[in-house]
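User: I need a structural model of Phage portal protein from Niastella caeni for a docking pre-check later this week. Nothing fancy, just the predicted structure tokens so I can convert them on my end. Input:
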Amino acid sequence: MSVRIKNGIGFSTRSGALFIDMGSAAQTPARNTTNVPVDDTEKGYPWAKWGDNNQLPCEMFRDIETCGILNSIIDGKARFAINNGILPALVHYEKNGQMVVDDIIMASEIQDFLDDNNHFFHCYAWMKDQCGFGNGVARFMLNGARNQIASFQRDDVTEMRYQKQDAGGRINNIYLSAHWDKVRSPNDNRIITIPLLNWNNPLKDLVERVNATNKVEFAMTFKYPGWGKKYYSTPLWYAAYNWVKIAQGVPEMKAAMFENNFRPKYIVIISDKFWERVFLGEGEKNWNDYTDAQISDKKNKVYDDIDEHLAGNKNVYKTIFVDGYFTPDGKLVPEIEVKPIDDPTKQGELLPDSAAANSEIAFATLFNPAIIGANMPSGPYTNSQGGSNVRESTLIQVIIHELERQNVRRIFNVIKRFNGWDKKYVLNEKQKLEFIIPATIPTTLDTGSNVKPMVTGAAPAQEPASAS
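Assistant: Understood. Predicted structure tokens for Phage portal protein:
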């Protein structure tokens, strides 16, 4: 094949043509993101597949790690969510519902427990799991007497699969494996089975299971609420999946052009209407009737035919005849458009598309690129001028991640109540032990400092509750 295609964007060193497939999003059937087993042909498997082939999270992390803007946004969102990390504190609530921090608990029983379990790393990873995959998993390990949670850890969410629901709609276990691409049997010793605590009341379930079994490890999971998701939820960025492919494809194509010292002479734009005529004009076929290999082969044949017609001295001054269609307002739209390029080194072809992809990904993930100092490189829709924009965007970003923080706090609420800390360290009935998450946010210089500390969802005890 003379034309190299990646995510609907390709080039040919033979004719000097750039190929842009406007219908690339339709070249394969949409992925199954309902995360429900597609059929009952795998009744021997007790786990619910994550995606059609049970490899969706692996495909996700490959997309994340090969898309610069998406990778940095997910990492940045996790940092904004965890801020300075978890701290145990005595708090009370004002009449307006505002939480006020009275004191930080420095008891070695709690502080050593957090430090010994590397709590900041696990909390940061849980935040990243939620932003990247829409799901998270924690594991509790009991002491020898089984009356205290002795340790906890974050497990890699891409290695987790839910057991299928029982007749009552309950999920009793999760399975952990780093080899889902190789596992073919529920008896495979590369799978670890962990009892899963009830989502609605994990503490009550933990107490009941400790009394009824001899288990010493239990899992707790969390996810984004959504629709039609019996098992796994979908991360925000997945709504911009096609933009992610553009953000990946443009730099790859540019790098290949640079490596081959390639100067494009034409831009060939192929509309989705053309592919519909090619693929859907044969009887009752639809996209699902084609395999990925069949689609690729058929498209490659078209690319090569056009490329061969454009290349070589014998083809100079020849004409390419293509079909088109009229829009309702009478405008003729060609199905294939060939544009000559006079000076490709100055036009920066496709860079605006890449910038638009960056912006669309940022919009989908609720992230303001101004935070990381991105002006035009982040996309044509951004206006990141001025420090005030960065300060306000930073504060809003901290606030946005309260959902992720609440999920992580639930883990520590189970620990504090099972271990009895909620009663041991509370001084009066108006106070309670909370695991708070402090943050440092930028301020204007006229405040006397360029940063100030804050506690997410709380007001300082010395100030009115409305101060935050």
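Before docking, keep this in mind: Residues 25-30, 32-41, 376-381, 459-468 have pLDDT under 50 and may be disordered.
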